[in-house]
Amino acid sequence: MEGKIIIVSAPSGCGKSTIINRLLQKGEIDMKFSVSATNRQPREGEVHGVSYWFLTDEEFRQAIADDNFVEYEEVYPGRFYGTLKSEVERRCREGHNVVLDIDVKGGVNVKRMYGERALALFIEPPSIDALRVRLEGRGTESPEAISQRLGKAEYELSFAPSYDIRIVNDDLDKAVADTEKAIKQFVGA
Ligand SMILES: Nc1nc2c(ncn2[C@@H]2O[C@H](COP(=O)(O)OP(=O)(O)O)[C@@H](O)[C@H]2O)c(=O)[nH]1
Ligand SMILES: Nc1ncnc2c1ncn2[C@@H]1O[C@H](COP(=O)(O)OP(=O)(O)O)[C@@H](O)[C@H]1O
């Protein structure tokens, strides 16, 4: 049987990477992480091929021309992110479920493409203030980049009603448990 697609979207800093990583570490659900391509710079500790495939602008343009993407978006001005066919299609054919950490527009597009084969999860922050504290606490972005992400958060939150399930990430353990339950129900694990 073909694997299913699990989409996880949220404004930056809501905790989607943290939640996905917890579930991957637990290893109870058969799902592989789809490593996206991006032309943004790696953050300290991010590994090529693990967090992202880090491409130059030219390499990203070439990947678009070669039709290598399921979808891609310019998430921030000049910063492109895309889901690679090579990360999704073979694994699904082999029966594995695939989890995508993608922005709100990409999430809605992928849900439209895959229909019932995809579960679209939206992670919400308890408040915009909490989001600011988390982005500052993560310490990976400049003050300008934090402002840019917060400025976009409200617009991104307006996409939540298009998703199948909304999960508030206030208490992390509860958010992980809620996400796990929703995914297990969907994949029948
Ligand atoms: N459309 C799309 N968005 C992606 C993809 N990969 C990552 N993103 C999104 O790009 C945004 C920025 O990601 P990142 O630079 O890692 O910052 P973070 O969200 O603050 O951790 C997030 O909303 C990601 O979910 C992708 O393949 N396609
Ligand atoms: N429930 C939570 N309570 C407090 N801090 C959290 C919670 N969930 C995640 N965080 C922290 O918030 C920051 C942003 O989380 P991250 O997973 O990087 O977000 P995203 O992938 O959505 O951008 C990280 O430093 C993370 O440790």
TrEMBL record:
<feature type="domain" description="Guanylate kinase-like">
    <location>
        <begin position="3"/>
        <end position="184"/>
    </location>
</feature>
<dbReference type="InterPro" id="IPR008145">
    <property type="entry name" value="GK/Ca_channel_bsu"/>
</dbReference>
<keyword id="KW-0963">Cytoplasm</keyword>
<dbReference type="GO" id="GO:0004385">
    <property type="term" value="F:GMP kinase activity"/>
</dbReference>
<keyword id="KW-0067">ATP-binding</keyword>
<dbReference type="GO" id="GO:0005524">
    <property type="term" value="F:ATP binding"/>
</dbReference>
<dbReference type="Pfam" id="PF00625">
    <property type="entry name" value="Guanylate_kin"/>
</dbReference>
<feature type="binding site">
    <location>
        <begin position="10"/>
        <end position="17"/>
    </location>
    <ligand>
        <name>ATP</name>
    </ligand>
</feature>
<protein>
    <recommendedName>
        <fullName>Guanylate kinase</fullName>
        <ecNumber>2.7.4.8</ecNumber>
    </recommendedName>
</protein>
<keyword id="KW-0547">Nucleotide-binding</keyword>
<keyword id="KW-0418">Kinase</keyword>
<keyword id="KW-0808">Transferase</keyword>
<dbReference type="GO" id="GO:0005829">
    <property type="term" value="C:cytosol"/>
</dbReference>
<comment type="similarity">
    <text>Belongs to the guanylate kinase family.</text>
</comment>
<dbReference type="InterPro" id="IPR008144">
    <property type="entry name" value="Guanylate_kin-like_dom"/>
</dbReference>
<comment type="function">
    <text>Essential for recycling GMP and indirectly, cGMP.</text>
</comment>
<dbReference type="InterPro" id="IPR027417">
    <property type="entry name" value="P-loop_NTPase"/>
</dbReference>
<dbReference type="InterPro" id="IPR017665">
    <property type="entry name" value="Guanylate_kinase"/>
</dbReference>
